[in-house]
């Protein structure tokens, strides 16, 4: 895994070092961080779609893909935060390109623009090098509690 981190005391940095558990939804989605670059504002995560994620047509249900994209977009912002700061997704606009099958999905996200209070983020899910879904998100930056 490639890591370029900024604040070693942040939640994300501590999670990568194994000092804190990842969010339960990350485990549910079969998430595994492959690469993070806080200076470049990029993140790469591998997810595993299990048979429990399938719809009646035998493909991954769209809501599960949305959950992966939401996790992916918020996590790239989270990776850039300082200790005590947080992130919340305000909007997630998802497009489904092709059906996803059970198994590995590669997620890539990047911060497009970071403002004082919000970040604009793009994410994509790939399966066997083909895009299955993408999203644009607006994430709110939550300051530390005082």
In words, what does this structure look like?
By secondary structure, the chain is an alpha+beta fold. Helix content is 19%, strand content 43%. The protein contains 3 helices and 7 strands. It has helices spanning 11-16, 24-28, 62-78, and strands at residues 2-4, 32-37, 42-49, 86-96, 103-114, 118-127, 130-142. A hairpin with a 4-residue loop joins strand 2 and strand 3 (42-49).
Describe how the helices and strands are arranged.
Layout: E1 2-4, H1 11-16, H2 24-28, E2 32-37, E3 42-49, H3 62-78, E4 86-96, E5 103-114, E6 118-127, E7 130-142
Parallel strand pairs: 1-2
Antiparallel strand pairs: 2-3, 3-5, 4-7, 5-6, 6-7
Shape: globular
Helical fraction equals 10-25%
- Uncertain segments are none
Order of helices and strands: EHHEEHEEEE
Rounded to the nearest angstrom, the radius of gyration is 15 Å
Judged by helices, strands and strand pairing, the structural class is alpha+beta
Per DSSP, the total helix count is: 3
The order of strands across the largest sheet is: 1-2-3-5-6-7-4
Terminal CA distance:
35 Å
Largest sheet: 7 strands, mixed
Q: What would the average pLDDT be, to the nearest integer?
A: 94
Say how many strands there are.
7
Strand content: 35-45%
């Amino acid at each position: 895994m490639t890591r370029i981190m900024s604040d070693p005391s942040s939640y994300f940095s501590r999670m990568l070092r194994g000092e804190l558990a990842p969010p339960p939804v990350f485990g549910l989605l079969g998430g595994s961080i492959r690469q993070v670059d806080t200076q470049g504002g990029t993140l790469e995560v591998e997810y595993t779609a299990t048979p429990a994620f399938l719809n009646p047509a035998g493909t991954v249900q769209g809501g599960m893909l949305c959950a992966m994209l939401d996790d992916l977009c918020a996590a790239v912002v989270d990776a850039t935060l300082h200790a005590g700061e947080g992130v919340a997704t305000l909007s997630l606009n998802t497009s489904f390109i092709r059906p996803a099958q059970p198994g590995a999905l590669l997620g890539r996200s990047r911060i497009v623009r970071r403002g004082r209070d919000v970040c604009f983020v793009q994410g994509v899910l790939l399966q066997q090098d083909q895009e299955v879904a993408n999203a644009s998100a607006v994430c709110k930056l939550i300051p530390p509690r005082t």
